């Protein structure tokens, strides 16, 4: 099983993962905090080399872009999911995921694409309500300069196996402190983690 995602950098990634675990989501520590570009997909291993090449081509023509998370929302009652919303960068994510899914690994989506960061999935409504309320003031912003290929191991844990930095990242005006490959850039202050 593989997936393609944009990682949420530190300190936000760990904070949201800990909060997700605190709401009782059993998958919290199996899934790094992320924005999905290709959802979990079964792939024939024979296709993987071509898919990796496709991802490299997508990244080579990509450009760094600003992303901002702010506030919470839910997909309920359709699915029992609460998430932190993207208020900047959603269009870039939508374009990227279309390009990722246009290669040798094609995947039809069950629902229209809506980039987000899950903070609760399949847990009781009371816990979902708490997540939606307690993280309502959450905000974070950073520059996205890459995406990553993930594989699910035999224990159900998702691990990054390869990073794909954007080809235009180093010279892009939105990246004042380029750190190389797919290392997260220092997150820009954006209200910081919620208190309490």
TrEMBL record:
Gene3D superfamilies: Cyclic phosphodiesterase. One of its GO terms (molecular function) is ligase activity. Keywords: Ligase. Pfam families: 2_5_RNA_ligase2. This is 2'-5' RNA ligase. It comes from Actinacidiphila glaucinigra. The lineage of its organism: Bacteria, Bacillati, Actinomycetota, Actinomycetes, Kitasatosporales.
